[in-house]
From TrEMBL:
Protein name as it appears in the record: Protein-disulfide isomerase-like protein
A Pfam family it matches: Thioredoxin_4
Domain Thioredoxin-like fold: 47-189
Molecular functions (GO terms): isomerase activity; oxidoreductase activity
Signal peptide, first to last residue: none
UniProt keyword annotations, A-Z: Disulfide bond, Isomerase, Oxidoreductase, Redox-active center, Signal
TM region positions: none
Family: Belongs to the thioredoxin family. DsbA subfamily.
Length: 217
């Protein structure tokens, strides 16, 4: 595994009323690159965007998290348009251990949707339906979402009912815990040179764009 030792240069950003941390002030000198992060993650997570993008945005997330929903619906579409679709960055969503066992099942459903190329669409549905759902742990609701997206229901149901990705999701949660992630949403923006920024809270898309562009200069 390649480990890169760097000196972090703190970039100053203008933030107003955001719960955020933009640099790793108390981080050890050994910083992992985005390649190293992929090697350490215990399962094959869906990657949004091209796999060899020069910058990776790791989003620590839970589908029952209201702040995550707020950020996703307000800021993610602009990040997708300006960074992911332009191949400047890709994004990986990592499960955080915030809301317990219900979230494990929900995340398994996103893996099952990814088998049919509908990861992002299913993810969008989960956030859009977040406040309408009485009990997230209901298998039928998760299957109904898949049906709405015209997925192969036999394949999706077999995947979800079998718990095919339960160990993968739990491993990702354990990994997130080992990284010290507590409050979400939290983002790590990392490039091939090992430069890293940590952003906490519902951060505006402009800050992501500025950070990615700074990495490329």
């Amino acid at each position: 595994m390649s480990i890169v030792i760097i000196v972090l240069i703190a970039a100053s950003f203008s933030l107003q009323n955001f719960d955020s941390v933009t640099t790793l002030e108390n981080t050890p000198d050994i910083i992992l690159t985005n390649v190293d992060y992929f090697e350490r993650i215990p399962s094959d997570l869906p990657i949004v965007g091209i796999s060899d993008a020069p910058v990776t945005i790791f989003a620590f997330n839970d589908y029952q998290c209201l702040s995550c929903k707020f950020w996703y619906e307000k800021e993610y579409p602009k990040i997708s348009e300006n960074l992911i679709k332009t191949n400047k960055a890709n994004m990986v969503f990592l499960d955080a251990p915030t809301f317990g066992n219900d979230s494990i099942l929900i995340s398994q459903a996103t893996f099952c949707a990814d088998e049919q190329g509908k990861y992002s669409e299913y993810q969008k549905t989960l956030f859009s339906k977040q406040q309408e759902i009485d009990s997230w742990a209901k298998l039928q609701q998760l299957k109904d979402f898949a049906m709405d997206l015209n997925l192969n229901m036999e394949k999706f149901a077999n995947c979800l009912d079998s718990g095919k990705y339960e160990k993968d999701v739990q491993a990702n949660i354990d990994y997130t815990t080992s990284m010290g992630v507590e409050k979400i949403p939290l983002f790590k923006i990392i490039n091939f040179e090992g430069k890293e920024f940590v952003l906490k809270g519902s951060i505006p898309s402009t800050l992501f764009e500025e950070t990615v562009n700074r990495f490329q200069n």
